[in-house]
Amino acid sequence: MDYTRSCGGAAIGARLRRLSESIDGDTMRAYAALGVQFEQRWFGVLNQLALNGPATVGELASTLRITHVSVSQTRNSLEKAGIVVSEADPSDARRRRLMLTDAGLALIERLQPLWRTCEKVALELTAEAGDLMAALDRLDDALTRRTMFERLMSGTTLLDDLDPTPQGRTG
Fold it and tell me: Tell me: the pLDDT tens digits for 45-57?
């Protein structure tokens, strides 16, 4: 039995995590087969730096629509690998701008064929799944209009249905 399928919408987060782990795992196997040490979480930051040049953690977080903490953790990992460096932002010394090192530029150049192939395969998969990206766009837009938390907390009896006392405790 497939638990996440059997739960339907109640397990949407688990289902998306499972699919993400599967896709990321297979992509990591491709990097390894090419002899490249690469963490999948690096892709968004590296791709943005390659496309748009130096950027702050906040700018990257905003563009990628992920948390500042997530980008900071990725930055630390990329710096340890020698792929990016950070230096004071000329317009605001409190901020740090990330930029690719020569090793980072060389890595991106080396990975371009794999990334183009990943794009092709992803397009094939989404078409086979019935225009999955359009459905994900609609899901993303729906959550932007009203978050999961807002949906859980409004117009339901959730708070009334929850027992406010710990189990087994009376009075």
Answer: 999 999 999 999 9
What are phi and psi for residue 159, nearest 5 degrees? -65, -35
Q: Which residues pair with 55 in a beta bridge?
A: 98
Q: Which burial class, exposed, middle or buried, applies to 75 when counting CB atoms under 10 A from its CB (0-12, 13-18, 19+)?
A: buried
Q: Is the Cβ–Cβ distance between 39 and 24 less than 8 Å?
A: no
Q: What is the pTM of this model?
A: 0.78
Q: Which ranges constitute the DSSP H helices of the chain?
A: 3-6, 12-33, 42-52, 57-64, 68-80, 102-128, 132-145, 148-153, 158-161
> Residue 3 pLDDT more than 50?
yes
| Chain centroid offset of residue 118 CA | 16
